[in-house]
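Aim 2, interim progress. The first record below pairs a target sequence with its C-alpha cells.
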Amino acid sequence: MAAFSFDPAAAVAHLRAADPALARIIDDNGPFAMELKKARSVFAALAEAIVYQQLSNKAAATIFGRLCSHFPRGPAGLTAERLLVLSDARIRSAGISRPKLKSLRDLARRSVAGEVPTLAAARRMTDAEIVERLIAVHGIGRWSAEMFLMFRLGRPDVLPIDDYSLRKAYATAFAKRALPSPAALEKAGQKWRPYRTVASWYLWQTLDKAGAD
C-alpha cells in the first residue's frame, strides 16, 4: 500500500478544530480510512485512468486486463515504450475506443519524450506543476490529474471542485438546497486547508452512508 505524504491523524485533528460542522461529519463516519493505490509509474497510472473513464469499474477492469495481456507480466509490463510498438488493431481488440486509443498514444509519446514526469520527479513537484504537466496529455483533464494527486501520490490538499459527487456530498452534508458551484465549493473549502483531501474523503463518505441507509 502506498503511503500518504502527511500525517492523517494530524489532518483529522486540524479539520475538527477548523470546522465544527465537518467535525460532526467526521464523528458520523469514523476513522480516516482512505486507501491509496500504488502506482508503478505515472504512465501506467494514467493509462489505467484513461481506460476507466466513463465505464463501470467491472467493465474497465476487464478491458484493462485485456490490454495488459499483450505485455510480459501483464500490468507490470505495461510501459510507454511497449505500448508505442503495439499495433492499433491489438489495442482496439481489448475494447479500447478510438478516442481512448488516441489518448493512450499521446500519453505514451509524451512519456517517452520526458514530458510526463517519472514518479520520483512527481514527488518533488508541486500539485500545480503536476496538474499542468498531466493535463497537456490528450484525454487527461484536471479531474483525472487531481485523482492522481489524491489517490496515487496521497497529496494532502486537493479539492476537486468540478467533481459532481463531491458537490452533491457537500450539499447533502451541509443541508444545502442546491449543489454549490465549483467556485462556491472552492470558497467553502478554504477553511479545510491544508488538508482538503481528507475533507473531501469525509464528504464522499456521506454519500456512501446515505446510499447504505
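The second target in this work package is listed in the same format:
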Amino acid sequence: MTIHVSSRQFSWDDQHLFARLSGDVNPMHMDPVVARRTSAGGPVVHGVHLLVWAINELAVRITAGRITRVKADWSSFVHIGETADLLLETETVGRLRARICVQSQPVATLSIWPGARSPVATQADGVFNPVSTDVPDDLDIAALSQKCGVVDFSSSTGDVQCHFPCAAYVLGCRRTAGLLALSKLVGMVCPGLHSIFTGLDVRLVEPEDGDFMSYQVTALDERYRYITQDIRGAGLYGAVEALVRNPPTRQPGIDELAPSVASGEFAGTTALVVGGSRGLGELTAKLLAAGGARVIISYSVGQADAEKLASSIRAAGGICHVTHYDVRDCSADQLTDLEYAPTHVYYFATGPISQSRIKPFDRQRFEEFCGFYVDGFAHLCSCLKATSEHPVRVFYPSSVYVSTEDRPAGLAEYAMAKAAGEVLCGEINSSHRRIHVVSRRLPRMLTDQTASLLSEQPIAPSHEVMLALIREVQHPESYRAH
C-alpha cells in the first residue's frame, strides 16, 4: 500500500536557503541563464535537499528514533516551482521505502533502515586541507580518476536543528550537516561544475564527530561519464555516485566560420535572429555576419550572452545589434522600435526541451511548446505583415523528431508542437502575401539541451547544415534555378 506523506513546492527562497546551508551554489541550481544550457533546461532543486526534506517528513515513522543506513537514487529533475509528492511505499520493521514524484512520475527513491549504530570512527583524514570554495571546479573528466581530499561543512549544528529539526533528531545534527556537505562535494568539488548527483548509500555510525567529509574517487567510467566516490566523516561512511554532464556546446567563433562564407554574400540584408544568443541561433548570427549581413540578435533572459556575442561579431568587423524579445509576449510592443526593419528572420525561440515524465501525453507541456513554436511564431509573422513595407523571408526550423521512428522517449509533445508549426507555416505562406516562410526539418545536431539525447545517434555538422539553409533563405533564386 502506498501512503501519501507530504507535498512541497520548492521556491527560490528554498533554493537560496539550501545553497547557503550546503555550500552548493552550482549554477544548475542557482543561475537561470546558465541552467538553461544544461539538459535540465532550467534551475532544479538540489537532490540532497529532496532527500533531507523526505527524511524530515518521515522521521515520525521511525519508532526507534535512530537511522543506521540511508540509500537514495535520483532519476530525474525537480524544477523550481514544481510540486514534489512524498509517498511511503512500504513500512516494515527493517526498512522504510519511499519515493518522490512529480506529476505522478518518480524522480527519486529512498530507503531508510532504522536501528542501532555501530561504533566506527569516521573522522575525516586531516592530511588534506579542507576545500571551501564559492565557485564550482571545472575539471576535465580524466582529471577525476585520482581525485581525493576533504570538504568542510557550510552549516552549523544550529542551522541544521533550526531548518531540519526532525531529520536532525533521527540522524544527528552533524550527520545531517554531513549529508548537506555531500551536495557541496558533488556540485562544487568532484565532479563539480558539470555534475549530476545520481545516488548515495551511507551508513550511520558512532561517534558523530568532526565537521569535515573526506572523499576519494574509486571508479570512473569515461564512456558513460559516471563516477563513484567513497566518503567518510561526521558519523557517515559509504559511497556517492554522480554523472559528469557534457559541457555546454561551444559554437565555432566567427573567425573559424568566415572561410566557409563568401565575402559579402549576404550584404545588403538585415536579419533578425530570434533566440540568437546561444545554440543554433548564435551559429546562424555568426554565419550571417561573416557574409556581410546586418544582424539583430534577440534574447529573452540571456542578455550577457547576447552582448558577448554581439561584441565578438563587431570585433571581427561585422554589424550586430541586440534587442530583448520574449515570443510569449506581444510582438508588436517589442519589435516596432527596431532601428532597422528586417528583410529576413530566423526563428530559434525555444523553451526547455527536457523529456516528459508523463506518458504518452502531457497537455500542459504541449501547450508550453505551442507557446513557442505555434502561438509565438504566428504573432511574430502577424507583426511583420503589419509593419514591413517590403517582403520578408522567414526561416522556421522544424525537427526530424516530427517523423522519425526512433525519437527519444518523452519528446512526443515537442514533436507534436513542431508538426503544428509546420502546418502554420503553410497557412502563412498561403495567406500573407509579403511573408514567405521556409520551413525545414533539421537533422540531429548537438545543442545544449539535446546533448544528453544524442549520445548514441549520428550528429550532423551544425555549421554546414545551417550555412546551406541560410543560403536557401537568403538566395531563393539560386535554389529555384536548381
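The CA atoms of residues 38 and 58 lie 32 Å apart. This observation will shape the mutagenesis plan for the next reporting period.
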